[in-house]
Design a protein that fits this description.
The protein contains 22 helices and 23 strands. It has 740 residues and is α+β, with helices and mostly antiparallel strands. The protein has three domains: 283 residues, 3-hydroxy-3-methylglutaryl-coenzyme A Reductase, Chain A, domain 2 (Alpha-Beta Complex), CATH 3.90.770; 217 residues, 3-hydroxy-3-methylglutaryl-coenzyme A Reductase, Chain A, domain 2 (Alpha-Beta Complex); 116 residues, Alpha-Beta Plaits (2-Layer Sandwich), CATH 3.30.70.420. Helix 6 crosses helix 18 and helix 17 packs antiparallel against helix 18. It is globular. The chain starts with a strand and ends with a helix. The relative contact order is 0.14.
Amino acid sequence: MHGVTFRTNSRTFLSLKSRATTLLAGHCLQPKKKISSSVFKPLPNTVKIQKNPHTNLPLYKMSLQKIREILGISKDKTNMTELLKMGINVIGTFQLPLGIATKFETFLPLALEEPSVIAGASGRAGLLSFSYQKTSTTLKVICEVPIAALAKGDKDGMWYAERLLKGFNLAKHVPKRAVTHNKGMDNAIGPLLQALGLQSSKISSLLHFISRNKGIHPTTGDPQYGPANNWELTDTNLLRGSIEFPIIELPKDIDLSKHQGVQISRHLANIGEDDSLKLTRLVGSVALAQNLAALLSLASKVGISGNHMPFHQSSENAKASIVQNPLSMLSPPNNIARVNLQALAQKLNIKDYQTLIDTTSEDTLVSMIEQGIGALRLPLSVFPLKMDGKDCFVPWAGPLKSDTLLEFLNLVNSVGTLSTEAPLPLIEGQVQVEFKKESKLSPKELQRYIQDNWKDYQSRIIQRDKSTDKSDRPGKLERMEKRGGFRPDISVTQFGKSSAVIHFSLNPDKAMGANLIDRAAEIFGELLEEDLSINSIFRILTNDHSNCIAKGKLTLPNSTFISKKDSTGSHTADEIANYLRACKTDETKAFELNTLLTQSIISQGIATGQDTRALTAALHLMASTKGINSETKKTQYGPLIQAHQTKDHIDFQIDIPTRLTAIGRMKSLHKGVQTSLTIIGNAQVADVDMLAKQLAGFSLILGVDHCINMAKTNVGKPTPYDLYYIDMQLTPAKIESLYQ
């Protein structure tokens, strides 16, 4: 939540901060397997713990009081005064479910919504042996697992290992697969950092940034977006994985001692202020464990939905209905960015702004995830925005500190014009196939065959789903077909001599659609095996949402930038445009800008119950080809915001992937999400178009504000990039002044 600094000597885009770190003896060190008794008390043998029937992992579903007693932790009682220090326009709180992953060198706290993240990371971590290789600025995390340990059911370990490596090879050659591969690792990394009080947008951006040239184009051999990690077979029958990160520095200037939820999480993880090396170890370890779990699920014949959905079903034991919130009465003041709490409370017809505190019960939050142990409290902010000629409010869950944002929002709302477009909600699936000698078609003939028979396959997929779905509400794909349905576009990408991946898409309407398209992909793969005598290896969605783009356009007159040194504002407008052009050729600057957009997506996404890691993965994949190398003229990582000038004004534009959802567990159970949806005017069922427009519009505002600040100080100056932490050193007087 509060910022991370990275150190590296490989590129100038990360600051080179000198700090003595503990050297690892022998350059390669095994972690301590035994947990220090000072961290938490071991579970006594007399305690009976419920286990997940699908993973045989412990579920800490006993009373929260008992859980906390065993783990030696308390409830997060962080008060509003502390949360007010973490942001601007804070009107209440937002609670995230807090769980733990086990079988690592310590308990890992995770603030998240998805149960399978914990189950996957925990389940596979028990198989892995970790070691580490440290340089002066980076840490390479390596894991190994004996091939025999991968065996399951009637399939031996080598069967799983070979399919896993074929899937990894797909990610190396097809960016549409690589982005989901990396997103899966971020499913564990992001929640870990969120729980520890660190700004996960920094690591999310870095994960995808280092992936921008890790892949290989299947025909040209040129570098392209690929997997951030690596998997290989050793000569000694071990499956070896590795990932390398710059050492993650914990911020030293921030007093988090009064945020009790963060302190609880750091207590569980046994992370102190000088434990940057250990933190980097844990990040790399949980990333590899989570990735291994995902790849093995994909490699199995059951598929991702067969392994993933039972985790959801086993933990869904709480029901709640959406209650009309008094915020539905809210209408934003004209051209006012700073919220007056007293006036706001009067507008809402409530006595105390703390009514806006998230009242989602901890029992409900714990039910959302496996091994739930409580809640982590975040500040909930709200920002008034004039968009498409109408006033609206943008909810934001998490910290935000900016010296210029409120002033810039006032300018935008008074003299600017912000227009947006929402996309058709599409999600894409993939089926990786491998041709055998007896296959009835060649890879080149496959696309024409599928195009000619696509309608028939759609019907067969729906019918098989109805006949084999064992859920309480069978026939989900049939219901989806009535709402939106399969799309006619389909394509095939060939890589290697005998491998190809089939891409198809559907419109899930207000649903997220991930489980729908995973189910469709798995059935599609089964049918292709039966019809064409080919092997289907991986069958899953892709988090490439390039066919689901929200657009934003902000027009500001040059007079917006008038100052003593610039009587017309034209010179400053030129500098801003020049800065964005510099971002196009300088990956350092593009990374900085896109990291801010990542923070915007995560914070808005958390508030409205979105899959934030899917959104940020799509953002950085799109950014991987938005720049241009000034020497080679080839595409490279670049910015998602562009500027176009006329004689008297400047236009800023953003294209941003927005595969959003308006229904689902978080919307039905989480009162904080319900409050956020009510804030934007959707008390019962959210308008996906409105969500997409706000995501694009407010992200554009943040990005342009950043570009203006950089243009005034750093244009044309090659300065090293520093990932700044959030300033929490606010006096009570300053806090009060925010609401005057």
